[in-house]
Design a protein that fits this description.
Elements (H helix, E strand, L loop, with lengths): L3 E5 L1 H12 L3 H23 L10 E6 L3 H16 L4 E6 L8 H11 L4 E3 L11 E7 L11 H12 L2 E7 L15 E5 L2 E2 L10 E5 L14 E4 L5 H4 L13 E5 L6 H13 L4 E7 L3 H7 L4 E5 L12 H8 L4 E4 L7 H13 L4 E3 L6 H4 L6 E3 L3 H7 L8 E4 L4 E6 L8 E8 L11 H15 L4 H23 L13 H6 L1
Parallel strand pairs: 1-8, 2-3, 2-5, 3-4, 5-6, 6-7, 7-9, 10-19, 11-12, 11-14, 12-13, 14-15, 15-16, 16-17
Antiparallel strand pairs: 1-10, 17-18, 18-19
């Protein structure tokens, strides 16, 4: 898949780096310099979620001995270059004299910029306020336990008032009790597998140093997704084209109680680039929805007494599906037995790919029929369906790191086949109602235009959704926004 990169164990990463650099100090310095600069610019970008870079910003660097220390010190140098009034304090956690040659070189370059203070670990002031703390103490060669003096220093910094905590490559101490608690971990060149599980890593940002095309190991199963997966969506469309060239997505969604979910999924399908969008929703919602989204074609389905989709509407859905190249099923449909029976029937006669979301994520629905499908469960929904037979289905397991895989064959989907992809885009701004409905509609729109590439489409949809969330958070913050504002940043995410 275009834009993928391998995720390696610490042992694999160590072996690859030893072979790649082969003791060449010039090559190592070039990589360290690139990594440090990339960390600095990553910090600046992510700080935008809080606000603009502060005047006379205060940055604390925690430096160890080796490459992580060098990366962190170069990052501070770059911050001083871009924002000359930034003040830097360095704490050499293992002592300044323990710096290895390249880290010592990075320290000399930082010191030459001026406005840099050296503070001893354990002295008063470790708990003062900082705009940014950069953790460059230990990398992937850390071996537990933490030394008492280092643990105490990390504990003091963890307790301090810090606006953004950044770890280089891995948070120092990994999962130890006093390990550094990062808001963001900037994986320099290679994402190490522990970052998939470490709660104290915060959000993971992969910094591409040009290794992704050369650092392959045999038998790799864990992969990450970079922004390049969006290249296919971001390019020019053909000059001679027709709306039918970009697919027709059918959204089957909504209930009187959860009408907004159907509308959000439909709006996302419209913004996702589908040539045609049809939405089949409860008849009582159609008039209002037409006014909100006149670009879509609306099918009024019969309702149950409680406002859900009635089974008698199955013939209308079947007729609408004749023209569709992809279907989105489930946002806001509720849990009425009759509605779930309709969803099951839809799956039985569906021949085009179906994105199954929300309340349609039930064993009897996801296992019905034999057509291609994309399932988009969060943790609770996954617990509901993981015993179902999902052979061949693409599973998008939503979470802080969204995981995309193809379900195994005979064991109810518990075993995966092939590669497992991970998206590190997005963040807490997505922790609000409706973000999953937007994702389902977005994947459906992309799938309508490329129904033969279900796995690739799922990956592109997840990255696009997450990149739009990052753009929204950096422009507006993560708290005082609405889910539907994501739609306004989809274009920015492609054009970044």
């Amino acid at each position: 898949m275009h834009g993928e990169f391998p995720i390696l164990s610490c042992k694999e990463a160590k072996a690859w780096e030893a072979a790649w650099f082969a003791g060449d100090a010039a090559r190592e310095w070039a990589a360290m310099s690139a990594a440090g600069r990339a960390v600095a610019h990553g910090i600046v970008e992510d700080f935008r979620e809080i606000g603009p870079w502060p005047a006379r910003a205060r940055v604390l660097v925690l430096a160890g001995k080796g490459h992580n220390a060098g990366d962190a010190l170069i990052a501070a140098t770059e911050l001083r270059r871009v924002f000359p009034d930034t003040r830097v304090t360095v704490r050499f956690v293992c002592g300044e004299r323990t710096l290895r040659p390249l880290a010592a070189r990075a320290w000399r370059e930082l010191a030459e910029t001026g406005a840099v203070e050296v503070a001893q670990i354990g002295e008063a002031g470790a708990d003062e306020a900082w705009d940014v703390v950069i953790d460059g103490v230990f990398g992937f060669q850390f071996r537990a336990p933490l030394a008492a003096t280092v643990a105490a220093e990390l504990a003091r910094v963890n307790a301090a008032a810090v606006r953004l905590r950044a770890a280089v490559d891995l948070p120092s101490g990994l999962g130890e009790r006093d390990a550094f608690r990062a808001d963001f971990t900037y994986a320099t060149g290679i994402v190490k597998a522990p970052l998939l599980e470490l709660a104290n890593a915060g959000r993971v940002r992969w910094l591409d140093l040009g290794f992704s095309g050369v650092c392959h190991q045999s038998g790799e199963k864990l992969w990450g997704l970079g922004r390049e997966v969006l290249d296919e969506l971001a390019g020019l469309r053909p000059a001679r084209c027709d709306k039918r060239d970009f697919g027709h997505v059918l959204v089957v969604a909504g209930s009187r109680r959860y009408g907004g979910a159907a509308l959000m999924a439909t709006l996302a399908a419209l913004r996702g680039g589908a040539g045609l969008v049809t939405a089949a929703v409860p008849e009582s919602l159609v008039a209002g929805f037409v006014a909100r989204a006149p670009e879509a074609m609306w099918v009024a389905l019969p309702e149950t007494p409680d406002g859900g989709l009635a089974l008698e509407g199955v013939a209308q859905v079947r007729e609408a599906m004749r023209r569709a190249t992809a279907v989105v099923l489930g946002p806001g449909i509720g849990t009425e037995r009759e509605t779930l029976a309709l969803a099951t029937e839809v799956m039985k006669f569906a021949t085009v790919p179906v994105v199954i979301d929300a309340d349609a994520l039930r064993p009897e629905v996801v296992a019905a029929g034999a057509g291609p499908r994309v399932l988009t469960p969060h943790a609770g929904e996954w617990a509901r369906i993981e015993g179902a037979v999902l052979a061949g289905a693409v599973i998008v397991r939503k979470g802080p790191i969204t995981r995309i895989e193809v379900a195994g064959a005979s064991d109810g989907g518990a075993a995966e086949t092939g590669r497992i992809y991970h998206s590190f885009f997005g963040g807490p701004v997505l922790a609000r109602g409706g973000s999953g409905d937007v994702l389902a509609g977005l994947i459906g729109a992309v799938l309508a235009g490329a129904p033969e590439d279900v796995l690739g489409v799922a990956a592109r949809g997840v990255v696009w959704h997450g990149a739009a969330a990052d753009a929204l958070a950096r422009a507006r913050g993560a708290r005082a926004v609405r889910t539907t504002e994501l739609l306004d940043y989809l274009a920015d995410a492609l054009r970044a």
